[in-house]
Amino acid sequence: MNVQKGEISTIETTRDKNGDPNYARVISDTADRTISKPLVIPSALRKGALKKGTEVIYVEFADHSGAILMRADGEVSS
Known about the structure:
It is a single chain. The chain has strands at 2-11, 23-28, 39-40, 55-60, 66-71. The model has no long low-confidence stretch (mean pLDDT 95). The chain contains no helices and five strands.
């Protein structure tokens, strides 16, 4: 498990039952600027709280699955 900071690269087109996006890719804040596989967006952040360039804290597992934990600024809306 690896907790990291990064910024939203893209919001995926897949939607939850309410029509909100439920996955995003993140560019790591590390020197290599790796782009993650799609990470789960928590329901509290699905209604417009994330957009390209938003800084987030996220967790990524050895199999490259993971989830966004929160916006880096602690807000839940944009």
